[in-house]
Amino acid sequence: MTTINDIAKLANVSRTTVSRVLNNTGNVDPAAIERVKQVIQETGYVPSQYAKSLRTNKTKIIGIIIPRLTTETLNRFLEIFARRIQEFGYQTIMYNTGLDQEKEIEAFSVLFSRRVDGIIHFATNTSDELKKTIQSSKIPVIVVGQNFNIDNQILINEYHASSLLTEEMISRGYNHFGFIGAPETDYSVGIERRNAFIDVLKKHHKVIDYDLIDKANFDFKTGYDAMSRLLEKKKTIDAVVCVTDRIAIGAMQCIHDHGLKIPEDIAIAGMGASAISFYFTPKLTTIDFRNEEQGSLAVDMMMQLIQSENTKGTKTVVLEPSLIIGESI
To answer: Within the chain, how many helices (H) and strands (E) appear?
Structure first.
């Protein structure tokens, strides 16, 4: 196996010169650079990333903590992030917490032990223990999705997202609302989106029937089950706001199975702008959370933090969602 010493000998330069060429550091004679590059190409030499990480204290790896694998909106973020971070010579590794709050804490320990250079954290709660773990990190941590009132966060205006949907449905003449939310441990989705829904109804002097406020667990089945519970109450419902597209799609199937039409009998809307929302019949009215833009922004923030060798310093960025009108309202 070719070593850095072999490259130096074949290129007729010192080991230090080869190292400078590989790391693009220091002043090296252009002719020497060309000889080193030529020998590297001829020998197929690949530098040891592990050895380099020991010298530089950098692994060129970014850890990503995700809550689950079945989220399309998350995948859109990750696709952009992974592609752009590779342009800076970084790779990514992921830790899936499975929506387990204890594993969110554990994930940091695992990634710290892997000596990652930074962490992207898709938080699902705002516990004091989690906040303390984030703030005590010696490497940059960028939080996505939950507001800890700390540096280095990328957030969506969750309250405005739910407000947009509810306002739009009221403007179309709907009066009897149901709501399918999410567990309140997820503050952004479970509480902020529900609060916005209630506040808009109050603003327009609509009746708020708390018996028609249910919750699901971010998937089709529990969305279906929650809608079924709402229909079993035998109360008048002409519109339903769901906090995610997956919940909404499950609810739509339940409405179909009960022999009802969308939107003629019940209008429905979700949030997330998932691909299935555009291919389900009728097309789902939804909210675009600008996931691709979040992914690109996360790269810019992470590189700024790594290059400045500062774990803090970037401000919280709050992006505004946009409404996509489908055929379901």
So the answer is: 13, 12
